[in-house]
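Retry 2 of 3 after timeout on previous attempt. Resubmitting structure tokens to design endpoint.
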């Protein structure tokens, strides 16, 4: 019985964007210009669900933006810095759940 020859697949492995990286990519695709208000951001993005972990759990950015005391963001970095702790808290709280711990053990 012969073994299959090695595959010459030079493509990069698929990556999963989540958290601030996913939001950053979404803002770029939406063509958001700064400074921007909360409502301008929400209108530009359309669907505001953004994955906050590799499992695909999502956070509604529109809901979070409306809860922030700021209504205007001068730069994209300003917006991402303000939202980063919220994404991290959500990711950490999901990792501590039973389902989160089981997912962390699985290889996929």
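Retry 2 succeeded. Sequence:
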């Amino acid at each position: 019985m012969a073994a299959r020859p090695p595959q010459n697949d030079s493509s990069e492995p698929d990556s999963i964007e989540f958290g601030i990286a996913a939001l950053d990519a979404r803002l770029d695709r939406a063509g958001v210009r700064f400074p921007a208000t909360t409502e301008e951001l929400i209108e530009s993005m359309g669907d505001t669900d953004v994955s906050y972990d590799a499992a695909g759990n999502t956070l509604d950015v529109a809901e979070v933006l409306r809860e922030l005391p700021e209504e205007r963001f001068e730069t994209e970095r300003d917006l991402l810095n303000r939202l980063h702790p919220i994404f991290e808290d959500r990711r950490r709280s999901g990792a501590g759940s039973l389902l989160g711990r089981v997912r962390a053990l699985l290889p996929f």
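Attempt log closed. The longest helix spans residues 76-95.
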